[in-house]
Amino acid sequence: MVALPGCTDLKLQENYQLLNRELATVDPWRLDGNPFERERHAQMLRLSLAQDAITSALEVGCAAGAFTEKLAPHCQRLTVIDVVPRAIARTRQRMNKPAHVSWIVADVQQYSSEELFDLIVVAEVLYYIGGIAEMRMAIGNLLRMLAPGGHLVFGSARDANCRRWGHVAGAETVIAMLNEKLVEVERLEFRGHSDNEDCVLARFLNPVSSS
User: Fold this and answer.
1) What burial letters (b/e) apply to 6-16, b meaning 16+ CB within 10 Å?
2) Which residues lie closer than 8 Å to 211 by C-beta, 6 or more apart?
3) What are the pLDDT digits (tens) for 139-181?
4) Which one of 111, 170, 180, 185 is most buried, by most CB atoms within 10 A?
5) β-bridge partners, 198
6) Which three-class secondary structure state does DSSP give residue 210?
7) Phi, psi of 41 (to 5 degrees)
8) Where exactly are the transmembrane stretches of this chain (predicted)?
9) Whole-prediction pTM value?
């Protein structure tokens, strides 16, 4: 059984094991083969590129690399973190290890960087990490690494679906937290053909001045 190192929380361990099992499949979460997922990634990329050129970006949770592959060519530097080593390994293999991308196995609640990022992308990740307090901790950690004037692109299934899947909250809850510190610039809500295909994407601006 694959275990999350240093974690004693049963729910987090279950989520970690679930991610490992799903990543063992050919197309995890149908991120490549499902038209809904392809459109979701196309909109995430549009939101990510809505600002100026991306000097340094952070992607939180790469899954099997479907979105990382789209984002990387637009970044001078891209840091990719995922708590599951298999996700990092699959994405690196898929992309043939481009030199401007850094790969780090890390927990979003604990990862830190001296470099500030002008873009952070975090999608379909935060509902895996535990309760509301853990979500808030992860958001606070990300905001410490977001450069003044930088953008954060967030995506998630809605609260109702996340709770149906056994998680505590989803898009609406996290967006409310992000709006406490950031300025929401744009929001997209769209649905696919199944009940599970119902998500929200949003782009936020960090209004904090560097001075």
Assistant:
1) eeeeebbeebb
2) none
3) 999 999 999 999 999 999 999 999 999 999 999 999 999 999 9
4) 170
5) 191
6) coil
7) -70, -35
8) none
9) 0.89
